[in-house]
Amino acid sequence: MSPSASRQAVAALVLAAVAAVAIAGEVKETPEGLKIEMLSVPDGCSVKSKNGDSLTMHYTGTLADGTKFDSSHDRDQPFTFQLGVGQVIKGWDQGLTDMCVGEVRKLTIPPALAYGDRGAGNVIPGGATLTFNVELLNIGDAAPTTNVFKEIDSDKDNQLSREEVSGYLKKQMVAAEGSEGAEDVKKMLEEHDKLVDEIFQHEDKDKNGFISHDEFSGPKHDEL
C-alpha cells in the first residue's frame, strides 16, 4: 500500500470512529418532552426496530431521585412485548423505534407518556418522570395483534359503553376461571364494578360516559 493510500485508510478509520462516538452520544428530544439518549450503538446495524415487531429487552427503571422501581436484571428475565400497539407505556412505544439489537438507550419519560397523574400502585407516584436504561436483545416477528376495541364494541358504533366493557370483562374472566391464577380471577370478578369504574376513569378522557376509538389505549388495529 502506498503512503498516500495508507494515510487515506487511516483517515477513513478515524472518521468512522468519530461518527460512531457521535451516534452513541446522540440525544433526541420529542415535542412531547421524551428524551432519548443513545448510550451504546453497535457497528453494522442492518435491522432496526419498527412498530409491530416483537422486542426482547433488558431494562432498569428509576424515579427522578434515583430510586429503582423495577428491573428485569434483578429477575434475570428479559421482557418481551410488541412495539407500537399499546402493550407498554407511550414513552416506550415512541422511544424504542429505529433501535438495533445490542443498542443501549436511556429514556427520560415525562408523566404524560408514562403513568400520568394517577401513578402506578404504591411504586410510582402520580406525576412522576421516569428514567429507563434499556438494552435491545432481540427483534422478532410478532403474531397479529387482536383488535380488542372491535371485540368489545358489540354494537359497532365505534365507541364503548359501560355495558359493553362490563360484558367483555366478565366473558374474559369466566373463560380464565379454570386456568392458573384462578384465585386472582375470582377476586377480580368480586371487584368487577370497581374495575369497570377504574377503566372509565382512565380511558374516558372527555367524561361523556363512552370510550371512543381515539381514547382507547389498548390494541385496536387489525393491521399495523
What this model shows, in words?
It contains seven helices and nine strands, in the order αββββαβαββαβαααβ. The strands form two sheets. Strands 1, 2, 3, 4, 5, 6 and 7 form a seven-stranded antiparallel beta sheet that branches. The chain has a two-stranded antiparallel sheet with strand order 8-9. α5 packs antiparallel against α6 (about 180-190) and α5 (about 160-175) packs across α7 (about 190-205). The longest helix has 22 residues, at about 5-25. Mean pLDDT is about 80; it is low at about 1-5 and about 10-20. The N and C termini lie far apart (about 50 Å). The protein has about 220 residues and is α+β, with helices and mostly antiparallel strands. Keywords: Calcium, Endoplasmic reticulum, Glycoprotein, Isomerase, Repeat, Rotamase, Signal. This is peptidylprolyl isomerase.
